[in-house]
Design a protein that fits this description.
The protein has about 270 residues and is of the alpha/beta class. It is built from ten helices and ten strands. Helix 7 packs antiparallel against helix 8. The model has no long low-confidence stretch (mean pLDDT about 90).
Amino acid sequence: MQKGILYIVSTPIGNLEDITLRAIRILREVGLIAAEDTRRTKILLDAYGIDTPLTSLHDRNELKKGIHLIARLNEGTDIAYVSDAGTPGISDPGYIFVKQAIFESIRVVPVPGPVAAVAALNVSGLPMDSFVFFAFLPSRRGKRRQLLESVKEESKTMVFYESPNRLVATLQDISEVLGDRQIAVSRELTKIYEETLRGTVSEVSESLREKKIRGEITLVISGTTTSPDKSVSPDEIRARFQEARKNPGLSPRKEIYRQVLDFINENSG
């Protein structure tokens, strides 16, 4: 018996028009759709006239329910998995289910689409050639500051998700730990009240002072523009060369070697 295929289908992060033609076709053709929240997915399916059967697969039942769905796949049923919004597994359930399928030698096929982190990065005005995605910042202040301390020397643009209820406190922590970096704060991406605020941490914090913050937040932070001091002192250079002189393999005829030693002697205290 031929096994079914597990499709990991990306869905809109807000605007229902942000779905690919392929995703619509796959959702129509599979035998079953597993969804993080069947109620939210039903809204999407109704919008496109899709009547494929639905079942739930969320973070609280992923392991147990995944076993049942793997059995269906082994029996030949094609299944699509969707999260509430965006791409499954990116700060959403899906990882365990995919691992189960791979272990059972079931073909897993991606159906790419929206990711809030990439959408926010696109409009941030910050470098996009390389970036690091950290998902949600810790909710506890101590853990949050500890994480920020660990990325102080990160030179790549950093992308985080954050709750609107914690945004002001998080911006304060960023200012105190990372300094007044360039940032972009996006909320309600692709929705009616979409907004992106750009500037330094202090500028964005000021613009948020009188606002009631609502909607899902994606936070983009510039990497550090300074590098750790990698200069070598004359004393360290002298010590290294003195050690090198003990090596019998070094020829005394190497003029550059003599010149460097003379320079060290002339310029050290």
